[in-house]
Amino acid sequence: MAQTTHPPGTGGHAASGGEGGSRRDFLYLATAAAGVVGAASAAWPFIDSLNPAADTLALASIDVDLAPVAVGQAITVTWRGKPVFVRHRTAEEIESAKTVNLGDLRDPVADDARVKKPEWLIVIGICTHLGCVPLGQKVTDPRGDYGGWFCPCHGSHYDTAGRIRKGPAPANLVLPTYAFTGDTKIRLG
Amino acid sequence: MAQVQATKFKNPVVNWIDSRLPIFTMLDHEYNHYPMPRNVNYLWAFGAIAGIMLMIMIATGLFLAMQYSSHTSLAFDSVERIMRDVNYGWLIRYVHANGASMFFIAVYIHMFRALYYGSYKAPREILWILGVIIFLVMMGTAFMGYVLPWGQMSFWGATVITNLFSAFPIVGDPIVTLLWGGFSVDNPTLNRFFALHFLLPFVLLGLVILHTAALHVCGSNNPLGIDAKGPQDTVPFNPYVTVKDGFAVVIFLIVYAAFVFFMPNYMGHPDNYIPANPLVTPAHIVPEWYFLPFYAMLRAIPDKLGGVLAMFGSIALLAFLPWLDRSKVRSCKFRPVYRQFFWILAIDALILGYAGSQPAEGSWLLIARVGTFYYFFHFLVLLPVLGKLERTRPLPNSISESVLKGGGGIAAGAHAKPMEKA
């Protein structure tokens, strides 16, 4: 009926009894539901287009040859747009990482749980505080009080297992997903 | 009117906002109660359809722009990346590319509807001129969008169209250099075209708002071309026209989707999948179909400047239409002679379009010349003369008298009989 097209107060509800009203309500609800489903399915391709594209995903894993990295050296490789620190640790560095009392740590994890082979420490080189890249990859860099890395932004100190020891960062340097594909070859991702 | 006071909304939040910023009153007034002539037919839906197309183009364009690189060395590959790698990139690009064609289809139907029913006549002259400006800006936007994929048609289309300006004496060459930002169509050209292609749709949106505002001053025309004289001649916009327009939009979108999903490249040109090469021109270059009639006019005139003037003139001419057509009667229904010429003009436009797609030689050139001549003859000679000589049919007294058989007229009240379809 035409009455419902008018603003409230135009009156004329005589014809629309309970039956007519519920039928109209059903039509309104059904239309609205179909509209919502349609709008959502139209919106999804747009939203999903913002997710990583196929070429981005194809670059999500990389192979790195560690053979040229001598003991005490470190390299930085780019993986998924982030720096990954690979450090060939010296015996002293491994020793100092292992002998730490876990109770002293802010984010207590044993050294064994942070490496697959003790001589290779592989961590994502992004400070867990606010995302800066810590210093310490070069021998000449400041490595903080614990011989690992030092973040110049807000002064976080990491040890030789990449664990947070001092400063504002809440957690250890994150471990990337990786596997050894050979003695000195790794695949990140 | 007291109407503004009377409009109270159930929702207290809406009321609170509305008493401070009356947007809900405005929307209610313009899209709820707004009186539409009760006899408008489905051709009146194409304004709404064109509006929907603009929104679709802006939405898809925004997401394409997030993936596109406007550098000559990256543009083509970035478009192919959208097609192959970006999630649903193929869909968004095809919706956008076919959307341009569908937008023009909607606008051309909208324009021919205005021509047939005399919607450009007083008091709707500014409404019509705004429409012509919208059409021009649309053409510029579409042209620059077609350049962005940086294929062969993009490059040579850009070269040909920008070279149009070189036809003007003295200022021509400096203008072309300015457009290019160099000595040929190159990276600076592509960059500025991308920037403008992003900007112009929002200019269009502003123009569309003005177009709608001008429309709502005097209301919509209708197939009879006579003014609505009161509530018995109109129905409220909502739900009558919202539902009718909505239905038309759905049908239109089905056709649109058929192109997108089943023949997405039908309205494009295969040469645009060849990367731009400034050293080789494709053997046969044509613009997108929606420019073909104007392209035919450009080539029909055997003089560089003349051709360019004819092409621009054919559009500029439309802005003067309200004064070229001297007849006081709007609708073709009551203009038996003009109606014949209207259809001849429509066929002429189609023939020009086809001629524009053919090589400019032999009989097609001759046909394009005759078509171009007729186009100008129609607007510059026929319309003014017909306005004086044509004997029009008598106009009905009112919309309701003509539409409601049995003279339901005044007493029944327009709103009580909603389902009478004109």
Offer a quick outline of the entry.
Chain A has 189 residues and is of the alpha+beta class. Helices cover 24% and strands 22% of the residues of chain A.
Description:
The complex is a heterodimer of chains A (189) and B (422). Chain A is of the alpha+beta class and 189 residues long. Chain A is 24% helix and 22% strand. Chain A is built from three helices and nine strands, in the order H-H-E-E-E-H-E-E-E-E-E-E. Chain A has helices at 18-49, 54-58, 91-98, and strands spanning 62-65, 74-79, 82-88, 120-124, 147-151, 156-159, 164-166, 178-180, 185-188. In chain A, strands 1-9-8 form a three-stranded antiparallel sheet, with no helix packed on it. A three-stranded antiparallel sheet of chain A has the order 2-3-4, with no helix packed on it. Chain A is elongated, with a radius of gyration of 30 Å. The N and C termini of chain A lie far apart (64 Å). By secondary structure, chain B is mainly α. Chain B is built from 18 helices and two strands. A two-stranded antiparallel sheet of chain B has the order 1-2. The longest helix of chain B is centred in the middle third of the chain and has 32 residues, at 187-218. The interface between A and B is medium-sized, with 15 and 27 residues.
